[in-house]
Amino acid sequence: MSSDVLAIVARHDPARWTGTLRHRAKTDLPFDASRVPEGAPLLFDTTVYIDQLKGDLPRAIVSLISSRTIFHATPALAEIAVIVGALNPTDERTKHTLQPILETLERIPLQRVISPPNETWLEAAVIAGILARTQGVAKEARRKFLNDTLLFLMAAESGTILISRNSRDIDLLLQMRPGVGVLLYQKRT
To answer: What confidence category does residue 140 fall into, taking pLDDT thresholds of 50, 70 and 90?
Structure first.
């Protein structure tokens, strides 16, 4: 295990990252669905599931999803599943909210679910820690970047294109590790 950590630290060298990363203009980020390589499989960030349930996915994303192989990452599924436990069972709205979430989770084919291996967790934690430090995230919120970093690295390792609405955090990750397949979107208005 220690050799994994040393290799990760050597690959990302926390000492190299001392300044705050600046967010780039949206025009400099990968928002164009037509630039996704033909046939490339997709990996969803949690935002995709939420926006899909609410009917807020842009048409270009819906069209792309309908023609591609979709993989589902356990960190994103966990973020969805936590909602199931967090909803107040005595609130009248819970049953209406809960049903579509459960149906979404049940429809996901197990053979399309991928989980990060131990080394990916460690690498994501190191990168998330670097981002928390350089972006001035409060000590108690240091895990803020962890799931996004996990999904980002999982996309890189699996050869999938990560689809996300979280352009701010993904922008920072792309600055740290350019070349990872990402497609960003904004909610349909």
So the answer is: confident
- With tokens 């909610």, the residue in question is 187
| Domain, as residue range, for 67 | 2-12+30-184
Amino acid at 167: S
Q: In angstroms, rounded to a whole number, what is the distance separating the alpha carbons of residues 69 and 109?
A: 11
According to the model, what pLDDT value does residue 2 have? 56
Mean pLDDT estimate for the chain = 93
CATH, residue 180? 3.40.50.1010
Distance, in Å, from the CA atom of 150 to the CA atom of 171, rounded to the nearest integer, reads 15
What SS3 class is residue 139? Answer: helix
Distances (CA, A) of 11 to 74, 90, 96, 116, 134: 25, 49, 47, 18, 17
